[in-house]
Amino acid sequence: MDKKIKVALAGNPNSGKTTLFNELTGARHYVGNWPGVTVEKKEGGFEHGEENILLTDLPGIYSISPYTMEEIVTRKYIIDEKPDVILNIVDASNLERNLYLTIQLIEMGRPVVIALNMMDIVEKKGIGIDIEALSKKLNSPVIPITASKMGKKEELLDAVVETAKKSGEYYPIEVDYGKDIEEKIVDTHNLIDHLACLNRFNHRWLSLRVIEEDLEIMNLMGSGQKAYLDPENSHGERYEELIVKKKYEFINSLVDKIVIDKSRDKETVSDKIDRIVMNKYLGLPIFILIMLGVFAFTFDVVGNKLLNLVDVFFSEILANAAFEWLSGAGVSEWLVSLVVEGIIGGVGGILVFLPNIATLFFAISILEDSGYMARVAFIMDRTMRRIGLSGKAFIPMVLGFGCNVPAIMSTRTLENKQDRMTAILINPFISCSARLPVYTLFAAAFFPRNKSMVVFSLYFIGIAVAVIVAFVFKRTLFKSEPIPLLIELPPYRIPTAKGIGIHVWERVKEFIVKAGTLIFAASIVIWFLLNYNMGGPAAFTDSFAASVGKFMAPIFAPLGFGNWRASLSLLTGVVAKEVIVSNMSIAYGAGAGSGLSLTEALSTSFTSLSAYSFMVYVLLYIPCIGVISVIKKETGSWKWTGFSIVYQLTLAWVIAFGVYQIGSFFAG
Amino acid sequence: MGQILTLAIAIALISYAAYVIWKNINRVKKGQCPGGCGTCTKNCGYREENSKGGGEGDDNL
User: Fold this and answer.
1) What average pLDDT score do residues A367-384 get?
2) Which of A150, A196, A212, A431 could join A240 in a cystine, given CB atoms 3.0 to 4.6 angstroms apart?
3) Domain range enclosing A556
4) Which of A148, A169, A190 is the last residue of a domain?
5) Hey, are the CB atoms on B33 and A403 less than 8 Å from each other?
6) Would you call A538 an interface residue with chain B, using a CB distance cutoff of 8 Å?
7) Is residue A636 part of a domain?
8) Residue A73 and residue A58 in contact, taking contact as beta carbons nearer than 8 Å
9) Domain with A237 in it: what CATH number?
């Protein structure tokens, strides 16, 4: 129990690493049925029998050439941390491609245990795999598993512990690269053998990397050694390409020997679905229809019934109970007002939207876990490439529907700097879940019959503006050729209740925690600002907050909402978008025992058109302070952060102005 | 009794609000979203100690 066994979990993107990590450590990290969920490494400790195991989940990679951030993180960890065992998770339904990484990991010289995942899919396809033969050929234990229904956890961990204990006896298999390259390996080895700085590497692997012109390794060598290196053989063939070719020859011959495929040429269910949903012409309309269905389900079918129940609880039951208890205990009138109108009004005004958020993310989780969202990335690739952006940039956009902070962080998966800058700067246009309460409130108040269509239109405008801005940026500020999207399309799976439960719970928890902390505190501050001025207690219209709101209001008058309460809420929305609703709830004196609903109160200062213009402005104007901060962190530049704030404020104003003025023209 | 209760509740609420604001300012400084649930850090596996962000400028891109 004194020494921890260090285990590195490595594998291709979407091979089930994070699911296996969660199963083994008991953690609940976000799992998506699409590649690129893990960008940085994660750690989790647990006990197995007498042993303490420290498991590190590394980002999903296809190879360990240091081209992408994920490859660099993985390789650096294996070289510097020297894990006792590499637990390589291999997608059995896609053996050839997955084994390429396995061979590279084995060549690095650390003991490898192979978890052969997705065996259920393989078996359903009628494919048999000779596990014993595979284990023998790779000189590594191979344990067949199904990560989402972990039945062989003990067997897998036994193999890990046993391999760690015998790590001194481990010898990696050697792929035969043919006479030409084998001679080159020996020559290179002799050339670099004496370099102390390279001693931490496995020598055969190191020689191969040098022959493949690995820049990171080459930089550790002196110019004298580099001069001896020749990237081509006597026939003008590049060694790098020959090595890749030989590796695949080895893998293909291995797969031929161990796989018994009884289903060759048989069209799977996934293939049949893909023929329709990924059709060149039908793909996009089907996606739009599905999203329309998601919004109708969220706002028309489930969400609103639950919303009314939660609303009654806060604005009537809890507010009245608090009022009676505090008044009865002789608490001062101002404090009763702070608690009932400020806190219960502000926090309750937000929590009523919890059912909508839970329902929306329930539906989106089903799409993600089923494997459909990976198809959407592929469908969107055509459109994205037309605007000059890599299709890979669509994945951060989808994550942005949840929260723009992790979405902007996930742009790290984009190799190209120009693509990454564009993806960071357009991401705030993607409607995060914090903006949903604003849309839900206004859509219910002004468009009761078309709620779902109105909310859908806002999401659509967000995507459209993001795409148009990306088009402009890629032709002006960030010119570069788009990199083709290489994305693995996972087979469709029936989402598990546990997986969906985790996704929905993450969102619900985020929302509740935010309401109980930030919105709670913001409600207190807003209540004071709305009830006091320099002279002491004051009416709302003479308060500090009203002065600020009135100062800003003329800016928004041409957009249709030049009233101080709306202007003030936009300012407070910079803290977090939900605060717009809490602020309005307090400033309009609605809910919380007042007998006046916020929807009724809003109709006194908004029309349907100005309400829509307001929602468009909320969609497009600057994101919350957390997103601004992450833009600074990820771009590393105040210049680009400032640019992002200024251009979003301008664009939001111009578009909302267009919506209101054109709408007014048609409305007469 | 009413005055003591008023004072106690007011101090508790204002202290809590001040604590939340201070904590969130620190979170934002680190490039995390306000709220403090940590969901955003889990979603992309981002961990502060592994982050290459924080003023490394273009190296991070």
Assistant:
1) 81
2) A212
3) 284-482+511-667
4) A169
5) yes
6) no
7) yes
8) yes
9) 1.10.287.1770
DSSP 8-class letter at A495: P
pLDDT tens track for A627-658: 888 888 888 889 999 999 999 999 999 999 99
Show which of residues 23-42 on chain A sit within 8 Å of chain B, judged by CB atoms: 28-30, 37-42
Task: Report which of A140, A115, A144, A112 is spatially closest to residue A128, judged by C-alpha positions.
Answer: A144
B50 and A338 within 8 Å at the Cβ level: the answer is: no
Q: Are residues A236 and A328 in the same domain?
A: no
- Pair (A312, A234) in one structural domain: no
pLDDT tens per residue, range A183-192: 888 888 887 7
User: What residues in B contact A37, CB-CB < 8 Å?
Assistant: 43-45
Q: Give the pLDDT of residue A36.
A: 45
Q: Which of B5, B11, B39 to mutate to test the interface with A (most CBs of A within 10 A)?
A: B39
Residue A106 lies in a domain: yes
Q: Is A330 left (phi over 0), alpha (psi -120 to 50) or beta?
A: left
Instruction: Determine if residue A116 is left, alpha or beta; phi over 0 gives left, psi from -120 to 50 gives alpha, anything else beta.
Output: beta
- Distance between CA A458 and CA A282 in Å, rounded? 23
Residue A266 lies in a domain: no
CA B8 to chain A, closest CA, distance in angstroms equals 10
In sequence order, what DSSP letters do the residues of A422-482 get, joined into one string? HHHHHGGGS--GGGHHHHHHHHHHH-TTSHHHHHHHHHHHHHHHHHHHHHHHHHTTS--PP
In this prediction, residue A172 carries a pLDDT of: 78
User: Is there a contact between B44 and A636 if contact means CB atoms under 8 Å apart?
Assistant: no
**Full DSSP string of B5-35:** HHHHHHHHHHHHHHHHHHHHHHHHHTT--TT
* CB-count exposure of residue A663 (10 Å: 0-12, 13-18, 19+): middle
Chain B nearest-CA distance from A185, in A, is 33
Residue A270 lies in a domain: no
ipTM: 0.71
